[in-house]
Amino acid sequence: MSATTLTPEADDKLWSGNSKLRAWREGGVTLFLLLCAAVTILTTAGIVIVLSVETVEFFRKSGVSVLEFLTGTVLKPELSPPRYGILPLVWGTFVVAAGSTIIALPVGLLSAIYLSEYAPRALRLVLKPTLELLAGIPTIVYGYLALLVVTPVLKRVLEPVGLRVETFNALAACVVVGIMIIPMVSSLSEDVLSAVPRGLREAGYGLGATKFEVSTRIVLPAGLSGVVASFILALSRAIGETMAVVLAAGMRPQISLNPLTSIETMTAYIVAVTNGEASYGSPKYLSLFAVGMVLFLITLTLNIVSGFVLRRYREVYQ
Amino acid sequence: MSSASSSLYTPHRRSRRWLGPIFGVACFLATLTGVVVLSVVLGAVIAAALRRPGAEPWYAIGSHARDLFDLLVALAKKPQSSDPLLAGFRAGVVGSMWMLVLVAVFAIPFGVGAAVFLEEYVPPGPWRRIIQTNIANLAGVPSIVYGILGLALFVRAFGFKNLAMGRTLLAGSLTLSLLVLPVIVIATQEALRTVPNSLRQAALALGATRWQMVRDHVLPAALPGILTGTILSLSRAIGETAPLLMVGAAGAIGVLPKSPFDRYTVLPVEIYNYAKNPKVQFQTVTAGGILILLLLLLTMNATAIIIRNRYGRPGRG
């Protein structure tokens, strides 16, 4: 096989003993690595199977129709007959997601522009890690922050004006979830804005544009796909957020326009059911899988749309 | 033409002068919110942890660093209790440490393995694209959905009693491992991509097999990046609450777990239970628990960031 060896015996000693072992080892390692990659596929399969099987089981055992589940406005599993309408949960989720993105988008975008266009290098080197540290704060801490700081502040500000603020309220949840997703928006957007080639900026300056004009009319449009993608991801994150919402917004499923009352999100409902006294296999218990299915489909759609926006509308510079 | 352009620009001239700086200041303030939030979180929590009858206001915290440290150590040693004066986080701290070790054991080999497979073994093509898209989507699945998966798959095993793990450390750590797996894969892939191709070619040219090349050259070169991603994902696992509530990290626990097959609780779940308690005295206990958690996580994350800034990312920073 190899032409460089001196004697057949030397060749044997050096290589043949090893070569079989090597082939085995290579094969084994490749198999293990394949298995690792397969785990990620199996996880997705597992999520889809678990959610589908148990959701079907829920509809079968509870006798609720899919239409009734998706369009019902009353969620009262303890009534007889029980009412399973998911709309109050969807509404609660929507309120928190919308409110938090209203807070997070402008702040996140402005700070992304600052980091990529304005910040001096030294400051940037300090600010970026700070943002990362912030992104590492667990959500339960934000929930506690809502109870400890945000709600008392809201009470102090709004109650003298004559507005009643409940201890658990949607507004506090919006504020903390908004704060929570700011680092995500700003760091994803900043990556895209920094990737806009220098030549574009310099062309702008060459034509006499100010820094403001370059930032908002050249860099921002050039990186728009990435910014939009980061917005969608942040929205999806806000929808899937659990602990901050559980602690801040409470667990009362209702459709109300008043952000100062308690609401319940899909995630909070799932937690409430698992921690409640409903036994495994009962319709109420199974309803958490149906709600989980809706939650999974919504966030999956948003994530796919975000990836699509990023790929489809990306400006490619060579 | 010339009149049109002058009408376009004249009204802007004055605004151009002040709009820019105002915008710059707005951007700067927006960036500062992060720093402000971090200080508000720490300040408020420390103040709440130290609150005692007749205590000083929050800005006197600086002189209490020693007190605070003693307080946290004491809290970490005390068991669960319904009496705020006796309550602490011993079970949670022990459970979280178990969790850290078990998740590291399960998730790191599989995460790094999957990344190596994708980057070094699979040629670009439809297969790689499918797995890649799948991983990106998994990273975006809400953590509570992983909790549902863990509940049905590990805790109950679809009702097969012999396979069901029940509410044990093992079930919890497997659930969290699946949760952080995509994060580790993505971080490892990024680290592997920074390794120059010439290194691979040199190894292969000298007769190394693919695995020898990966083990002896590519992985060591990518190690700082992998380490950073791994630590960040482990710290995420330690801070997770929702999926563990689902797979049964218990509210009350009598005995500390001694093996992966025991019941358990973790720090964030204990914090959640104390935070829910209506007794106002529990606020100080909860705040103390949050400080222990933050201290642990910020240390882990800062370590990760330092490793990356010191060794990693050629061409950046």
Describe this structure in words.
The complex is a heterodimer of chains A (318) and B (317). With 318 residues, chain A is mainly alpha-helical. Chain A folds into 2 domains: 47 residues; 237 residues, MetI-like fold. Chain A has a two-stranded antiparallel ribbon with strand order 1-2. In chain A, a hairpin with a 6-residue loop joins strand 1 and strand 2. In chain A, helix 7 packs antiparallel against helix 8. The longest helix of chain A has 55 residues. By secondary structure, chain B is an all-alpha fold. Chain B folds into 2 domains: 50 residues; 222 residues, MetI-like (MetI-like fold, Orthogonal Bundle), CATH 1.10.3720. Helices cover 73% and strands 0% of the residues of chain B. Chain B contains 11 helices and no strands. In chain B, helix 1 crosses helix 11, helix 2 crosses helix 11 and helix 5 packs across helix 6. The radius of gyration of chain B is 25 Å and the shape is globular. The N terminus of chain B is likely disordered. The interface between A and B is large, with 91 and 89 residues.
CATH topology of the largest domain in chain B: MetI-like fold
Q: How confident overall, as mean pLDDT of chain A? A: 87
pLDDT averaged over residues of chain B? 85
| First and last CA, distance of chain B | 47 Å
Shape of chain A: globular
Percent helix range of chain A: over 70%
Number of helices of chain B: 11
Poorly predicted sequence stretches spanning 5 or more consecutive residues of chain A: none
The count of β-strands of chain A is 2
Count of spatially separate domains of chain A: 2
Q: How much strand of chain B?
A: under 5%
Q: Oligomeric form of this entry?
A: heterodimer
The coarse silhouette of chain B is globular
What helical percentage do the residues of chain B reach? over 70%
CATH class descriptor of the largest domain in chain B: Mainly Alpha
Q: Largest beta sheet of chain B, briefly?
A: none
